[in-house]
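Q: How would the structure tokens look for this protein?
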Amino acid sequence: MKPYELTYIISSEITAREAEEKAKSIESLIQDKNGIVLRSEKPSARTLAYNIKKQSSGFFGVLEFQLEPEYLGELNEKIQKDNKIIRHMVLINNPAKIQKERRIKKKPLISNEAGGIIGTIEKDLSPKTVKKTNKKVELEEIEKELDEILSE
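A: Here is the predicted structure in token form.
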């Protein structure tokens, strides 16, 4: 069985109680196919960012479940045929992968002549800034050049 997540929007033309019943019917569809419902959020009324099938609001619900992949197409068809569900999406729910920590190579230890360990070699890896030397022009030279330019 693979883990899936179903997100759906139920039409706002029905009441909140009917929306909850619709959510339970979706759960029963999954359970009929020997699926396991892991988490179910009660449908809540939401205003949509844009109109979907001429509706500006709907009941938004999320359902996490496990199901055999061969039954997923059948479940998808049944949800599509239901005219009260205006939009739905089924995703493969991959749990967050735990990344291995990168191993940092430690530099060799420095030992003194007596065989005792003094410590690790530390090297400054920060980027070095190179200072550019600018020619300093004195104020008198600038005035002379301006006078020459203006006198022409």
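The two ends are 90 Å apart (CA to CA).

The domain at 2-92 is CATH 3.30.70.60 (Alpha-Beta Plaits).

Upvote if useful.
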